[in-house]
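In these records, each integer encodes one residue's backbone shape. Here is one protein:

___
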Amino acid sequence: MTKFEELQAMHEHLMEQSKAPANVDAFVADVQRDIQQMCVAAEDVSAPRERDQLRAILRFWASYVYDHTGTYPDTTLRPAQTSPTPSAPSPSASEQGRPPLFWIVLAAGAALIVLLVAVSFITRPPVTVPPAIKTPHDSVIIEVTIERPLAPQIQIQYTILTAGPSPFDDDAWVVKLQLSATGGNGIYVFWVNNEVLPDVGNNQFTVEGEGCDPKKPVVGVTSDGKATSLELVIQSPLKDCQQP
């Protein structure tokens, strides 16, 4: 029989006596004596698992002694004389000397924290998560361009002021136009090819071209939060170009 088996048999013997001790005080004294013997005999127990079980046995009987005397006995194991494998670190004397009441209070505090966390989750309003939008693998993305309807309250007009060939190039020509508008609040901002006409230009602009190719400037006007645009087709004024 190994030393650990002897100590375990001592524990089982104490368990049988604890069921109906003839003299409780004498039995408590026997338990205190056996606790000291177990702590000393632990030097012959080197297996880490056996030493852990021995610590559990000692804690059990130390709690028994504390319940009857109010004093928690020392349950520190003596170091093993031979240690074939590294043993688990034994609890410090301060940890061994803490009465069961300490652990009860600690466990109660931990249970209270868990209860508070659970209540917070229960009382928290549910969070609605929108369902994920699934797109089929063979889906087609369609780009939709919404054109802004032209405001009927505002209209743009143009007038050709002059047109003719370039004095420096017989194949070049120029046309000068002036824009006007109706509707809105009577105050207009004119645009040509996405650029604002300067106020000092009296809403006039020129179009230059070559040969018989027509030019197609896009003019627009903005007034009182409304806008409209128009694409002009300016034909070449050269004599050799056939007019439509």
